[in-house]
Amino acid sequence: MEKEAKYKNVVKIINSVIETESDLIANMANICAILKEHFDWLWIGFYRVDQTQRELVLGPFQGPLACTRIPYGKGVCGKSWADKISLVVDNVHEFEGHIACSSLSNSEIVIPVFIKGEIGAILDIDSTKIKDFDDIDRKYLTMIAQKLTVLFS
Ligand code: SME
Hints:
Helices cover 38% and strands 27% of the residues. The chain has 153 residues and is of the alpha+beta class. It has one domain (3-152): GAF domain (Beta-Lactamase), CATH 3.30.450. The chain is globular. 35% of the residues are buried. Methionine sulfoxide binds next to helix 3 and strand 6. Residues 43, 66-67, 70, 75-78, 98-99, 101, 105, 108, 124, 126 line the site of methionine sulfoxide.
């Protein structure tokens, strides 16, 4: 199936699953599972903001074990948090400060999840393929993040 059509279907499935559940963590867990079922990515997960420590802490994910904590501003995820932007990294080996949780990761996309006007979590996805993410991924993954914003703000 063409990528955009696949995403439309995936967004529909995710919305129907998360709309009826009021627990954020449970919804994050199912979002990871649904994405993992439909896309051939290495790692899909959420890092949650731990304001007391000014760090991101590992949340629900699918894939190999990952770094537990990421300081504010560090790595791709920390930069997304600090700059309040999504990032598409075509080649993680060329990204200064990239935190390598798996040597198999070659490209990455990160999307901030806003809760009550603040970044509450970061959706992070890694691929073994170089340049595996583009604006279509950014568009639909942002839609998924925004659904969480609507449900949990
Ligand atoms: N590569 C990320 C760290 C998290 S792992 O990819 C799961 C980063 O640089 O922030």
